[in-house]
Fold:
Amino acid sequence: MKARLIALSLCSMALAGNTLAGEITVSAAASLTNAFKDIAQGFEAKNPGSKVNFNFAASGALLQQMAKGAPVDVFASADQETMDSAVKQKLVNSADRKDFARNALVVIVPADSKLKLQQLSDLQQAAIKHVALGIPASVPVGRYAKHALEAARLWPAVEAKAINTQNVRQSLDYVARGEVEAGFVYQTDAAIMPDKVKVAFTVPLDESISYPVARTATAANATEAQRFVSYLLSPAAQAILSRYGFHKP
Structure:
């Protein structure tokens, strides 16, 4: 019995340690949730012993977590601005960042909506009382939306109707549940709930929605982190991203 207890104790100590040699933590933009989960399966199958743990949230929130010391091996942002901030704070090295996908900004409405929305100015309609919009200061999709609205000189009118959200998936959920009449999300988010939301129109932008990724400067498993970053640009990972509606970088 004593020998068995010692064995169990050693086993528990091993599990409490820092786990598998090939284990990494990836902090990624919420819009990447579905595609990255599939990509991780392919990565782990190709690299026996590898294990990918995810932390999905708005890119700005993930940056704040890293700045406060969260243990992260790979950071994937939905915009260049947030990655620029990561470089300035020396959380990642500029030479390590790679662009791996692009996306489009759309306005969605509930699938059963009768509203006729074809352009940003239509959001001024009296029937539109609430618009889901990510917090521009920390959520890239909200920042893209604000930029487009400011360019169209519609920001004050739409801001008055805005229901701010913590990330793009929260905006998607609000529209899917009919809690708002419209919302700003990425094209790829709208595509995962075709039975609950529909795209009213694609928002014109004078900038590209480009996703950068990099291993972090403090990655505990730098080799495995770089392996995952490289895998994102492989034909297999790019095919998965394409299946979810992302465009090539």
